[in-house]
Hints:
By secondary structure, this protein is an alpha+beta fold. It is built from four helices and seven strands. The strands form three sheets. A three-stranded antiparallel β-sheet has the order 6-5-7, with helices on one face. A hairpin with a 6-residue loop joins strand 3 (21-23) and strand 4 (30-32). The radius of gyration is 35 Å and the shape is rod-shaped.
Amino acid sequence: xxxxxxxxxxxxxxxxxxxxxxxxxxxxxxxxxxxxxxxxxxxxxxxxxxxxxxxxxxxxxxxxxxxxxxxxxxxxxxxxxxxxxxxxxxxxxxxxxxxxxxxxxxxxxxxxxxxxxxxxxxxxxxxxxxxxxxxxxxxxxxxxxxxxxxxxxxxxxxxxxxxxxxxx
Length: 168
């Protein structure tokens, strides 16, 4: 038999309550019962729990005073993606193409004026179900690969890095 650490009343603690929090029926003190069946006399875990607090107010939404980009259509990004950088290019090979059933998937991936690619010209380059596109900037290659990643094609790509020799 053990006593409540608060009111000292005698407690009947069942072994199933060892290792749990226990509430004294006499004084409502909550304390931990050790694995040996003894009340812990240290500070109760519940005494450290903060009382009900009022939530902090949510700040009002304020319109941003500055815009992220002063170019509405991100023409600077488009220009970079379409720039010719002879030092770094990509080649993409799209295989297992069936134009009859998959033309819509491909046309949606390439019919974007920002890519600067002509879908009609690309269609003419398809040979035996394979389309090879070379000399793509990294931005264009990333956009194309992202658009086709869940399409039912076999896609591979290569990066080409050309070192420019400096004068010295």
